[in-house]
Amino acid sequence: MTAGAIWAIGEVVDGRATRLSTEVATVARSLAAASGRQAVAVVVGADPGRAAADLAAFVPRVVAIAAPLATERPTAAVAAPRIAALARSEDPDYLVIGATPDGRDLAGLLAALLDLGVLANAIDVAWDPAVGPTVESSILGGRVLTTSAFTAGRGIILVGPNVIAAVAAGSSGSVDEPVVDVGTEAPAVRIVEWVAAEAVAAAIEEARIVVAGGRGVGGPEGFRVVEELAEVLGGAVGATRAAVDAGWIPYAQQIGQTGRTVRPALYVALGISGAIQHKVGMRSSGTIVAVNRDPDAPLAEYADLFVVGDLFAVGPALAAEIRSRRA
User: Fold this and answer.
1) Which domains does the chain have, with CATH numbers?
2) Rounded to whole angstroms, how far apart are CA atoms 231 and 30?
3) How far lies 282's CA from each of 20, 26, 137, 279, in Å?
4) pLDDT digits (tens, 9 = 90+) for 229-247
5) Which H/E stretch holds residue 213?
């Protein structure tokens, strides 16, 4: 491998690279192309071959590291020493990691093992020839957006889901499977219990259409309008933090700084004011349509179509019109 490379650290679930891993690989390839560096994906797993093949579609080179695992997912305690050992010999400048719970754990351990700084909560990443990667992050609960860079010319970037669309490269990359000498293993992490969260009807991160409701729906009953329109459009139901905190809808459907980040082709917002905390979770949507009685709602500034009206009149009318055109 080439010194100064940009590494994308993949995450394995059920033997395959996650969608966020392909997005992270796309970020690494984009930065590498802008800087004249090499993009490399690194994946650790009990049998990392399938995940490595997944990532080979996105970067010119993938390193697959086999590691004995106690569970079906590699924990940071297993992955970090192996990635760090490889990094000490190959000397990459930047590591890009998905901001999942496992990814955050991994970034923390790698930061300590490799003496690297971390830029977290990235909602946009670009290359500046003068300073290297520039990372736009949302902080203080989404109230402030910052742009930061590394002072030492090296570091770890944590990228959230749906920050960039995963785009495959023109050709498939090669896969290496080196034997990595870890030396001293990290202390073992014992998982005592797995608790599966209750699944929602449709995963909002994967949906091409999302219909979301906010404080303006008024309560759980108001979400029937949101759900009806989502059903007609064949989309998923989302919500703001205010609606979730009020107990109107499960947290799994929360969009925004403290919830999910979505990137649908169509985003319909009913009764959502559009505060910055919510904006950071849906601003990459293809087309944004909003319905709100307040013409001065912040969402009006970045919606492609803003309807000033009562969502309880506009929502059902829109659903009825769509049904009639399909009849």
Assistant:
1) 6-176 (3.40.50.620), 209-326 (3.40.50.1220)
2) 36
3) 16, 20, 14, 5
4) 999 999 999 999 999 999 9
5) strand 209-213
